[in-house]
């Protein structure tokens, strides 16, 4: 090794020892005579001193050092002179007095500061990701990610799981996204699909008798990217035989609890993890991945105002929709501009507008004593004082609060209020950043009607088992069939879906048909699954928590790009290697492909 100790390791106990360190020049300070460098490696930073009086040559070489030069230093560990200790640094009590210095490599001036935690344009960071990853914050994120996967592996190993790798070149498996396709050179005109997940393979491993499988699995989905999406991402994919929902939920709860307590003891948990029914999550929070760290819940006021002769309310009811509200704590004094901003958020989710009631801070605390002069509202001409009182009471509004109302199709109302809730939660600082609020969402429907394609879609995926006693409804009212499906959510993010699976050929066949697959389609796409179910498939179920999102939350980051070593940008481009890129005509020919001319530009 070119070093005997790391730069994060030395303490006052090492004083007097001779050491060799190697790393990057983090900072250099020339103090007229003495030269100090902060030498950095993956482990930390050690101060090195070059004294012209005692080691002239090393000092002369040190004059040439610039940030990010790679050096090797030999010297002696020394306690820092009193008053010069750096309490912020684990090695802050010592310094290494250099006797020799070798420059192992020089460095161009980096395009951004590595030694300062400053905001840098993300595209630049991604282009020079190898420099970005040198920054302590990114290094810490990668180390945390390593600890998370190691913890998962150890935990599951102790519980009798074995890790099995599954192929990346497979046949398409439906997870609701577009596939990435890989053309076959050997089979002209045929394609592999990159796995959206190892779903079918892990089920087949259960048929194979593996009983407890897991994999840190890479998944590929070609969909429009958002902050928490990447074309390729990683799941802790797991599957078990001879289990029911309770076994799976308990396993996941035990694993996440132990993981957070061990790796991030500064973070708090709600124990046991709350369980919400899907319907309840939708009613209270407007979505099925609620951030339960704060209230601001949605309230239906259709019964209070639905009878009014007010066109937006009437229109909502005519389309079977709803009128709902939430009480924004302490926002009664919001300016016109602030309310306009909120209105834009509601409109972005399809709402026609946003109505508001501002309850003056001077209003009495008992809402039944509210008077007209305490209320300012876009609905003053429509609502009576009794209506205002009833609405305020319904959403628990207090003096100084702003009640926001949306009417329309139920999905639109919920989506708009749920986004407003998240925005207000952020603006008002309601979500405790030190809380990891895991929760399970259960009791999902099996299918939902897609009015665009006029077909039933799986809410999870087509392998999810229906609840046994709802089986008869498959023929009469598929939308009413409940699924043996569960989600785990945390702080407003869906970490994972999972389910108990179908393991009977007849049931699986029936579900495929209900989802609109033709007999030929079924055999071509899923014949292998149906066949396998005829050879003693055990009851089984699983889940696949997204590792990127978990690490993002644990690290307190806002996007999964911050916890992914080499992510793609929002346009699915890897700015460092410039992928995707064009390929040669020879490669295309070998793959039996040609590019349609209008797509070339
Ligand atoms: N394959 C599923 C998914 O990616 C997870 C599961 O059902 O285990 O969402």
State the CATH topology of the domain at 294-430.
Gyrase A, domain 2
Ligands = aspartic acid
Described by its quaternary structure, the protein is single chain
Distance between the termini: 51 Å
Give the amount of beta strand, in percent: 15-25%
CATH architectural grouping of the domain at 294-430: 2-Layer Sandwich
Major beta-sheet overview: 8 strands, mixed
Radius of gyration (Å): 30 Å
Low-confidence stretches: none
Name of the CATH homologous superfamily of the domain at 294-430: GAD-like domain
Return the structural class: alpha+beta
Shape: globular
Helix content: 25-40%
Protein architecture, described:
This protein has 601 residues and is α+β, with helices and mostly antiparallel strands. Among the domains are: 94 residues, OB fold (Dihydrolipoamide Acetyltransferase, E2P); 137 residues, Gyrase A, domain 2, CATH 3.30.1360. It has an 8-stranded mixed β-sheet with strand order 6-9-10-24-23-22-19-12, sandwiched between helices. Strand 1 and strand 2 form a beta hairpin. Helix 10 packs across helix 12 and helix 14 packs antiparallel against helix 15.
Give a brief description:
The protein contains 17 helices and 24 strands. Helix 14 (505-514) packs antiparallel against helix 15 (519-532).
Offer a few descriptive terms.
601 residues; alpha+beta; OB fold (Dihydrolipoamide Acetyltransferase, E2P); Gyrase A, domain 2; eight-stranded mixed β-sheet; five-stranded mixed barrel; 17 helices; 23% strand; globular; binds aspartic acid
């Amino acid at each position: 090794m070119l070093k005997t100790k790391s730069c994060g390791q030395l303490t006052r106990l090492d004083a007097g020892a001779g050491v060799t360190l190697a790393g990057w020049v983090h900072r250099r300070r020339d103090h007229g005579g003495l030269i100090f460098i902060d030498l950095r490696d993956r482990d930390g930073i050690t101060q090195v001193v070059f004294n012209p009086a005692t080691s002239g040559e090393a000092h002369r070489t040190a004059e040439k050092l610039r940030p990010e030069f790679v050096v090797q230093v030999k010297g002696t560990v020394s306690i820092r002179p009193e008053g010069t200790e750096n309490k912020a640094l684990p090695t802050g009590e010592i310094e290494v007095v250099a006797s020799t210095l070798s420059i192992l490599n020089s460095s161009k001036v980096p395009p951004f500061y590595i030694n300062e935690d400053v905001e840098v344009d993300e595209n630049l960071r991604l282009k020079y990701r190898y420099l970005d990853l040198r920054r302590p914050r990114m290094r810490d994120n990668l180390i945390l990610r390593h600890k998370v996967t190691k913890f998962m592996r150890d935990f599951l190993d102790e519980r009798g799981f074995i890790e099995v790798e599954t192929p990346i070149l497979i046949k398409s498996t439906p997870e609701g996204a577009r596939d990435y396709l890989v053309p076959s050179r050997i089979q002209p005109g045929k394609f592999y699909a990159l796995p959206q997940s190892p779903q079918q393979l892990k089920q087949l491993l259960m048929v194979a008798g593996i009983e407890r499988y897991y994999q840190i699995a890479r998944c590929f989905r070609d969909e429009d990217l958002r902050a928490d999406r990447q074309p390729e991402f990683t799941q802790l994919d797991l599957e078990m035989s001879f289990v029911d929902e309770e076994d799976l939920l308990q396993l996941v709860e035990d694993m996440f609890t132990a993981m957070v307590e061990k790796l991030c003891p500064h973070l708090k948990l709600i124990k046991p993890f709350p369980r919400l029914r899907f319907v309840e999550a939708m009613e209270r929070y407007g979505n099925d991945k609620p951030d339960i760290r704060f209230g601001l819940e949605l309230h239906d006021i259709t019964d209070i105002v639905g009878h009014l002769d007010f066109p937006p309310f009437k229109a909502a009811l005519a389309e079977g929709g709803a009128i709902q509200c939430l009480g924004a704590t302490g926002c009664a004094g919001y300016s016109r501009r602030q309310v306009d901003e909120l209105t834009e958020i509601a409109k972005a989710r399809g709402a026609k507008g946003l109505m508001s009631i501002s309850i003056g801070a001077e209003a009495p605390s008992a809402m039944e004593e509210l008077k007209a002069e305490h209320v300012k509202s876009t609905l003053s001409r429509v609502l009576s004082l009794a209506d205002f009182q009833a609405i305020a009471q319904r959403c628990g509004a207090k003096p100084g609060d702003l009640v926001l109302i949306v009417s329309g199709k139920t999905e639109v109302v919920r989506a708009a209020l749920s986004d407003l809730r998240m925005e207000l939660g952020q603006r008002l600082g309601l979500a405790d950043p030190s809380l990891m609020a895991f929760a399970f969402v259960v009791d999902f429907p099996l299918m939902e009607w897609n009015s665009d394609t006029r077909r039933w879609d799986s809410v999870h995926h087509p392998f999810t088992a229906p609840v046994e006693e709802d089986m008869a409804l498959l023929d009469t009212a598929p939308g009413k069939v409940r699924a043996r499906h569960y989600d785990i959510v945390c702080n407003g993010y869906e970490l994972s879906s999972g389910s108990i699976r179908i393991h009977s050929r007849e049931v699986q066949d029936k579900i495929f048909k209900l989802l609109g697959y033709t007999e030929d389609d079924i055999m071509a796409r899923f014949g292998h699954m149906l066949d396998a179910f005829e050879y003693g498939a055990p009851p089984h179920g699983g889940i696949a928590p997204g590792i990127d999102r978990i690490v993002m939350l644990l690290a307190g980051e806002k996007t999964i790009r911050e916890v992914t070593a080499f992510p793609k940008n929002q346009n699915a481009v890897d700015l460092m290697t410039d992928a995707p890129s064009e390929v040669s005509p020879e490669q295309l020919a070998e793959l039996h492909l040609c590019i349609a001319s209008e797509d070339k530009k």
